[in-house]
Amino acid sequence: MMSRLIFGWIIFCTLAPARADETPTEIECEFGPAPIETFESGRDLILMLPEEATAELLSEGRYYAPPGMLPAPFCPGLIQALVIFDLPRSRVMRLLSETQHQSEYLHHADEMHPVLRSEEESIVHYELKILFTRVRYRLHYRFLPAESRIWWQLNSEYDNDLEAVRGYWNFYSLETTDPGSAEEVGGGESGEGARTLAIYGTRVNVGTALPQRMQDSITRKKMKQSIQETREWINAQQGA
């Protein structure tokens, strides 16, 4: 079944060239309950970026970071992005923690629904069809409001069709319209800024049959689609 899954991904995705000897390694990522990055605010994070990255982030509302640019946990092959949401940090995190709404904005799967949900965690079941193969997997999300963070991995108690998946969101209050100015924007909750800057990171391993460079190319393409869908949905909740 895995060979048909791989064939389907190659057909439907634009892939970067890969060497035959690039085999994926087992994911050993230092994801856990401790904070990954430490910034006082989104403004501090933006000020550490190169000028070109800052311009694209402020213009487009997202920036897909090259490897090594952003602070990160140890996780070989981790792919990262920066995203600006037009809502306060606590509300963005609350909306993304409501995993029962994922089907409203994520369209990479034919079916997705929570099988467990609480204030601290959620397990979501996903199914998608690629050619003649039905792919099933479950992600276990952890919600850490005190750290302004969400992180996830495959649910180890389920027989997943993917080898490994890891990911996280880190949220920072964005208090200024222009990171180079001192102008503050109101509208946040409990002193928060009116907007949120988030770091998104993900790492996917479909198995040893697909070269790692191909896997990373597929992951990056799917990440861009998911981030765009997520950002549009979150921003549309301003009047909700």
Keywords:
single chain, 8 strands, eight-stranded antiparallel sheet, alpha+beta, 28% strand, 25% helix, Alpha-D-Glucose-1,6-Bisphosphate, Chain A, domain 4, 240 residues
CATH level 4 superfamily: START domain
What is the level-2 CATH architecture name? 2-Layer Sandwich
Largest sheet, order of strands side by side?
1-2-8-7-6-5-4-3
Mean pLDDT: 78
Tell how many strands the DSSP assignment holds.
8
Strand content: 25-35%
Rg: 18 Å
From the N-terminal CA to the C-terminal CA, the straight-line distance is 43 Å
Number of separate helices: 5
Coarse shape:
globular
Unreliable spans: 1-27, 180-190
* CATH fold name: Alpha-D-Glucose-1,6-Bisphosphate, Chain A, domain 4
Sheet with the most strands? 8 strands, antiparallel
Range of helix content: 25-40%
Structural domain count: 1
Q: Class in CATH?
A: Alpha Beta
Order of helices and strands: HHHEEHEEEEEEH
